[in-house]
Amino acid sequence: MKKSFTRRFSLVLAGVMAFGSAAFAATAQAAPAEQASTGASYGLPEKIEDGAILHCWTWSFNTIKENLPQIAQAGFKAVQTSPVNKVREPKTKKDALKSSGNDSGNWWYQYQPTDYTIGNYMLGTEDEFKELCVEAHKLGIKVVADIVSNHCTSEYNQISSTIKSVAGNNTFHKVLQITDWSNRKQVTQGHLTGLWDLNTQNEKVQQMIVDYTNRVLADGADGFRFDAAKHIELPDDPGFGGNFWPTVLDNDAEFQYGEILLGADRAADYAKLMKITAEGYGTNLRAALSKQKLTSATAKNYRLTGVEDSKLVTWVESHDTYCTDDVPANNQFSSWYTTTNDDIKRGWAVICAQGDTTPLFYARPQGSGARIEGGTTTQNFNQKWGDNTIGIAGDGNYYSDEVAAVNKFRNAMVGEGKNLVDVVRQKVTMIERGTKGAVLVSVSDSDNTINTATNLADGEYTDQVSGTAFTVADGKLSGTVKAGAVVVLYTPEEEPEDVLVGDLNKDGKVDVQDATILQRHLAEFKNDDGSAIIDMDDPKQVKIADYDGDGTVSVLDVTAMQRAIAEFGS
What is the rounded CA–CA span in Å between residue 360 and residue 352? Predict the structure, then answer.
């Protein structure tokens, strides 16, 4: 949240400073730190693959940045942005996710590059992207950027001269329409839905993408998702192979995966080069949830033969499965219609608790809701797209109690084996992790009292979602699983303080900037939304700002902070 300040602050600052230490100098350093404000404060793991990724679909860089504390508190290790490069711009309605107009600023323009520079009208500037990465790293959150490297926009006149000239007449593949989706040459060399297909075999085109991805990394990104990866050839494709993937993937990114959707007959070969998506698994899982018939066999079958589980990125739904155009006349609907938010919570628990793939949580549009049975097309259009605005935060399901509890469970279970059990046939499935914890997922319409064999150590366990008690005695887990519930059983380590006392900007040290923030609060300066810089209704904020520990936030706290900086500075 940006802060608003005026010139009159200097007068108040002078008055407050009169109470402070004379040693309040710009060169002062941090007071001794008991704990830095990093991922450790939120129990986040070191690696992206050990945690969960939040897909902040069409959120602006600033929106993601403003929501980082909540994202960390919900247990997400990484955020995935929409494509950060310059993209196709419509003539009108740039703020709409989708519109019935012919030139609507729809979300899919985000996947139509016009230049490989960083920043676009949907997400923000390159500087804002850098700021997002800096703030994310302070909280232990990593940033995964979406890369569209297979094609450019279908609007040729919007493609930059830089791209057009990078390889002269060889920048793009010759126009070839995809008519047979089982034909490897068409799928990898053809123009996908009219989009200008980059000649990815060309070394100059490859270097253009390398230069771009290196810049994204230099700006602070930690990993990449490669859009339409199956539409780019592999080195040994007969007659049209190329070294695009070995060249582009040779970088310092921690985490890289490719979008390999159904119909890719060489998924296992792509997986030798990078992680890949398991779309078929999400399809099966959604079907099981909607039919209320969930089994351990469905839960653990990722449906990709010859690919190690650790190479997979899994989801309940993706932006593609959510946004696909519906055809009511043929009874064809995308996942927004067939899968409820409660289904998403249950499916997420199944995926995230297992720990052997990297789970991706798609944040649906803000204000979106369940379908209206018998509703008109317009009514359901509004339900699907919600507030229908590019740049704003998505639906709050990502920080629901169930999702947050399962994320934290996953983070606490890194390195533990898994065991899946059908507790109640087709209705309650249990995912155990070693002897330390278990997650139970119910798709039942009724409560189920259970007394089932378990690997959990004997003892009392509290469901981290509902607070309900469960007991393990003599190798049996007993308790009541409520209808449709997600139950998370383990004993969390005592959470450390999120920040140092006095560390108001949460950068892991107490310094001049923190004193300045406190002074501004006392001067009654406000955030853009009118709220106080320090939220006096938030006990944690008060605790941080109450440097002298008297239960109030006052000038004396500024004085105490300044003296600490002077005394312990170096």
Answer: 9
